[in-house]
Structures are given as structure tokens and as C-alpha cells.
Amino acid sequence: MHNLALPCKATLRNGVPLYIIEGGTQDVVRIDMLMSGGYGVQKMPLQALFTNRMLREGTKDFSSAEIARRLDYYGAWIDMYSSQNCNHLTLYTLGRHVEPLLELVDSMLRHPLFPQKNLNTVRGSNKAFFKINSRKVDVVAQRHFEHTLWGEAHPLGHIVEEGDYDAITQESLMQYHAQVYGSNTLSLFLSGKINEKIMMAIERVMGTDTWGTDRRIQFITPQTAVPTYGCKKVHMDGALQSGVKIGFMAMDSDDADYLKFRFLTVLLGGYFGSRLMSNIREKNGYTYHIEAELDAYGKKNAFMISTETDNAYVEPLLKEVDYEISRLRNESVSSEELELVRNYTLGELCREYEGVMPKAEVFINAWLSGQPFDIVNDYLGIVRSVTAEELKSLAGKYLHSDCFSTVIVGA
To answer: Structural domains in the chain?
Structure first.
């Protein structure tokens, strides 16, 4: 496959950067509004998440019902979530409806009211969802795994409790909004079929004046992780299966080994025919699914193997994981397997890059990792050229069980 054309950058009159990924034949546009900060700068658990979520619950210009009606009328929808570095608001709409919807979103970003009645409802529904998830072994294992990686003092290491939901107040959301939201912290990604009218609407609505915080929050560098190595077992009454997480804090995204290690992770557990799936699912029948992945936290990355298994199979499963990792350290990958994984990865990248909006997601993820957009094409080059000797060397350098954190949640 060919290298991807990189986003073009423009700067609006108020200094807001705008990254443009143009393509597609349909009158569809995606606009991503990214506020630097995320939960890396929050003062209390869940503060960033609830501030961002409550933006659609009413502003000085629109009630929550009016926001919902306008989105329905124009056939648009909004995704909202928070990450380590950013609060995300993504608008999907037809190009001809951009201007009235930008006015709506602009009011949500600038002038939210965080009405108490709506906060009570949102907090209650989120708390109920949290309680349901707290009975799922995989979810609980993920919480404890991040705690072992980062330590309790870090925002990423805190294990959320029910009381954290009760502590969220209207005042705490207003404080976070005043601290983080503003034209100084805003970056825009525009993707889809773009014309001059859309560009003029963005400039008029979101690029004319400065507003909000006078801070300039760049990428938040996480505090130093305080990992806990070894095995942590968490008992859950009545659990029929155990959730298992195995991994460690890996290299940053700008490390020279990062892209090759991404490929090694795919080979180990990133596709259906991977080594972990072939051994632990197909050969031994210990699980329905097992995978290895690199989870990004800004520019930092955690290597993680995830699965669920019958309580009785936990120990033999762990032995087989260790066996497959030992093989990577001690044996060179065959040319046949290397070409299989190479072709699989290139095929998946072709699928991932097929549409303009999936491409936007890829470039946004690169931007969130603090890397230049070129890293997307750099990975294509690594997939095409990485050798068996390089993969064996990487495994020997990084994949050592005594540096792993293992979390097991079950009966």
C-alpha cells in the first residue's frame, strides 16, 4: 500500500490550529475538538469525564432538550470522551449543516451551565453503570492493572470507587472547565468532503475571538509511574471465570524501538492466528480469546496481554503465556510466519486507512501521542522491512517475566 497523504495545517485568526484531512465523495464531515488537559490535570477523580459529559446538558444559549432536538433535526451526532491528555468532542454531520451545528457546539464548549438536576441524573446513571461493571472480572482486572502500573498517587493509578461519583459537584465541574477550556487549549481536526463554505463557517464561529482560560496546556507528561511487579490476586465472590492482565510499562512512542515493538506485539497476540491464540485457544482450549496490545497513555505505552478463563485454567494459562514469550526471546521467527504477519498487518492497515474518517482517527492518535504525523507512514515502512533478527532482539530486550505485572480477578 502507498504512504498516506499527511494532514494540512492551518491556523485560525485566534490562534487555534486546524488540521485538515480531505477526502470522500459524500457530503459528510467530521469535526474533532480536542481540549488539552484531560484527566492528567484534574484535581479529583472523574472530574474531566463529568465536565466533558455534561457539556450537552445545557448552556446559556440552549437547554439540554434544545441541544438534542437540534442534533436530531440535522441528523447529526456527537461523541464525547476524555483521555490522559485531552477532552474530546467529535461532531459528525452533513457538510451543508456545519454552520448551525458549529454554533451549538461552540456554545457547549464556551458556556455550559452544568445544571444540578441534569448532573444528578447523569451521575446516577453513570454510577449504576459503574456498579454493573464492577461485577465484570475483565473490567475490574483492568482497573487493578492500571493501579499496578502507575501507583495510587497517579491519576491513572487510582481505582475509582462509588464515593468518587458522590464527590462530583456542580462547583467542581465549573472549576475544571474554567481551568482547562479555552481557545488557547483547543485544537481542531476537520475531515471529509470540505468546501469553502465549511472553512468560512469554522473561521467565523470558532476562529474569530479568544475565550476561556489564558493557560496554554500542551501535552501532559504523566508523572513517573510506580509499577508493582509480580502477581496480584483479587477475589470476586461467585465469579465463574477469572480476568487476567499481564504486562508492563513499555517504551514511549518516540523511542527508536516503538514501531518494531508494535509489530512484535501483533505477532504475539494481535490477530486471530497469533501465537497466543494458536496455543492457548486452539491447542489447549483454555480461553475463547486472548490478545496482546499496546495501550497508549499520551506518549507512554503499556504492553498488556488480556484474557478471561475458567478459574481452574489460570495457572496453566500463565505457564503457556510464559512459554510463548520465551520462544520469542530464544527462537527466530520463521520466514513463513513473518511474511504472514507482515501481510496481515498491511491488510489491516489498508482497511483502517480506507476512508477519510478512519484516517482522521489514525492521525489524531498520532497527535495525541505527541508524535509527528509521519509516524503513520514510518510504521508502514517498519512493517515492510522488519526482520526476524530484530524481533528476537526486541523480545530479548523487553519481554522478561520478572518485569511483568500480573493481575488475576476471580473466585
So the answer is: 8-206 (3.30.830.10), 230-410 (3.30.830.10)
